[in-house]
Specification:
single chain; 125 residues; alpha/beta; Oxidized Rhodanese, domain 1; six-stranded mixed sheet; 4 helices; 8 strands; 27% helix; 29% strand; Rhodanese-like_dom; Rhodanese-like domain-containing protein; thiosulfate-cyanide sulfurtransferase activity; Rhodanese-like_dom_sf
Length: 125
């Protein structure tokens, strides 16, 4: 994990593997900032959705028990929203480097769509 101090805030960049491990241990809340369509097609299992156009840092859950890690398709939108959250007063926020594209590159499991039925299905590459 890379850490950057921005004023009084800590900005973290996590790898997909770090996010996966922390998810399995129940240590983080993953928030997807992609569009609802992107999320419905495929997403990190257990990730919550807060699309970028509707992103409100003040609506994020507290981080007393679990840390927040944002993600998007490539890491660009999640970094932008994480920096916005810091501007709005969050003193610690993280995003996933490379986004969902990097997650899939690392062959980590996710929820996809069964093209025959349109139903969600777990994908284990």
């Amino acid at each position: 994990m890379k850490t950057e101090q921005v004023g009084d805030a800590t900005f973290e960049t996590w790898t997909p593997e770090e996010v996966f491990d922390a998810c399995r241990k129940g240590e983080i809340v993953v928030i997807d900032v992609r569009t609802p369509q992107e999320y419905m097609f495929e997403h990190v299992e257990g990730a919550l959705l807060m699309p970028m156009p509707f992103f409100k840092p003040e609506m994020l859950p507290g981080q007393t028990e679990k840390r927040i890690v944002l993600h998007c398709g490539s890491g660009v939108r999640s970094e932008k929203m994480a920096r916005l959250a810091m501007e709005r007063g969050l003193n610690r926020i993280a995003h996933m480097e490379g986004g969902f594209g990097a997650w899939k590159e690392k062959k980590l499991p996710y929820i996809g769509t069964d093209m025959a039925s349109g139903a969600p299905k777990r994908v284990e590459p």
